[in-house]
Amino acid sequence: MPPSDATAPHTPSHLQREPRGRYAPSPTGALHLGNARTALVAFWHARAQGGAFVMRVEDLDTKRSREAFVATNLDELRWLGLTWDEGPDVGGPCGPYRQSERFGRYERALARLEAAGHLFACYLSRKDLQELASAPHGAAPVYGPAQRALNERLGAQKRGAGKAPSLRFRAPPGQVAFTDLLAGSATFDAQRDVGDVVVRRADGEWAYQLAVVVDDLEMGITHVVRGDDLLPSTGTQLLLYRALGAPPPTFLHVPLLLEADGTRMAKRKGSLTLSALKAAGVRPERVVGLLAYSLGLLAEPTEVSAQELTASFDVGLLQREAFRLDEGGLGWLYGR
Per the record, which residues fall in region Disordered (predicted)? Predict the structure, then answer.
């Protein structure tokens, strides 16, 4: 563990005992129903504990983020019935609340990791990694000894040709484990399951994994609620917390809301959004009621406000499997 110093990301002392949750939309489009469902669970969980709820804008990807969607997303969440104590529109003691305004904080964390010997320059392209895996059309495997060896062989040549490297965090030997509030215990082998992950891309853009750890740490977030498609990334984040000398938050990974065909919802494929529902005249209480039903919090779809379910929220009631939003659910939503 690196020694403590003034450059280390840290939780402000006045926040260390307060339950704090957050939701962090990416302004790359209007929020779909799956996004809304996760936001509701994060909101209910924070409020049920008597804690603060923080809104953060994850506009880290400068190429895909759009300024117009920052306001759109906040308006959608307010329409749904969410309120927050801190955020880009209301301020707070842990700002700024937009990742695009926090790059200096990531620089300081990166310098700390580099000084402790956790980073190395990687000159391999995505094509290099796919060819090494003999899977040109598939996902690259965990970055490990074979990838490091190839980087050593090609690095000097690519460096001489002027290629900028990405920076990777070197996975240490050993395991990381945590207990999810819904999924239970999980253990990752750092080198086999996580590998050496990018913390800064070759084009200079910050990697999500480093940014989210720094942000949650400096904002004093005690509980992270998100979709269970992100559960595998928890191992990476636990390693980064450890390297930065900080305790991780508690995690709650929620099973996804799926399309009728069983595929996951996504902005890029035009999944049903809060903005579209609002424009169609659907009441927000109807959206909340359907989503609460899909989570196992209501026995049947019922019109209810987000605020009304705060007191009765119980993690133990949450469904442990994904929920398909079929034509029957959509019909109820639209009052058909």
Answer: 1-29
- Rounded CA separation 187/177 (Å): 4
Among candidate residues 63, 267, 269, 278, the one labeled active-site is 267
148 lies in a domain? yes
Q: Note whether 283 and 266 are within 8 A (CB).
A: no
Among residues 206, 228, 262, which one ends one of the domains?
206
CA torsion sign, 267 to 23 to 226 to 243?
positive
274 with 80: CB under 8 angstroms? yes
- Identify whether residues 75 and 128 lie together within a single domain: no
If the chain, 336 residues long, is cut into consecutive pieces of 10 residues, what is the mean pLDDT of each piece? 52 72 97 97 97 97 93 98 98 98 98 98 94 66 94 95 97 97 97 97 96 98 97 97 98 96 88 95 98 98 97 96 95 90
To the query of whether residue 267 is one of the catalytic residues in this protein, the response is: yes
Same domain, 187 and 52: no
